[in-house]
């Protein structure tokens, strides 16, 4: 049972108190940071301050009022280099759009994702293999098959990319039948090659997160001890078995939950909220529902505004989500009708500028990047 980090951590937070966010601090500090690398983060509280300052989105409720200025953050601030802007990526049938370029995928696109270098996607298999489907990459030129991924229900494939950078991760399905995977594949789209194959430490390891340099995962409960995900339900615990693979070093080590949380926060391009008991909830793809012109995530209101008169398509428009980051100030939001509890894979694509909260409709009725 492999699930995105957002799903796991969102469900883990269900047992905690309702989210409460210091909107004043978020708004006042947002302008102080345009790039996550501007803040030299040490650890602990400094890491949390850095991610609050480096993610220029705003969480809060309608009663928050107008924020007052907050003091400057304690971490050192340096001038950043200009940020890389990711392309807009979506599909129409068998055509993949990567920025202003179009690519013939040769078959129906089931799911797709984005890196700093282009698009990665899964297509319907032409050889009728019931256990796996091909994974492709393109920067806007001729696509290249880069591996095979286990076939999933509802087109929900276990394909993952980082919030920034070039790494793509999926369970290797080049051998064996569905459920027999024994390792993750890591592909670097900037180098156009597989850079790691990570052996599972359990029978069915669960992917948790990937950043520019590391892959985080958790073994299934076949390994004795404490885990993040059971085969049927979530079992939060203080000290689960968590592992981090350093791609450059080619080394997998066990890591504590607190250390992983600190690294995710320091990495930026992730949403945070604090529960009333002080716990910090991390989510890289918060789910959204439309309330008027506002978008709401898990009962916490984001200051994102859709265009006047716009309505999310579909009969149950409740599982829209932040799909991916174009740059440190801009996110793509998918808006469409969901199937059950699965985020939409088809619908409208909105581009939202986080500092001012304004969203525009970039494309309508297309295949979306769905987390």
UniProtKB/TrEMBL annotation:
It comes from Nocardioides ginsengisegetis. The keyword Transmembrane helix applies. This is Uncharacterized protein. It comes from the Bacteria. Residues 62-83 are annotated as: Disordered. Keywords: Membrane, Transmembrane, Transmembrane helix. The chain crosses the membrane at residues 39-59.
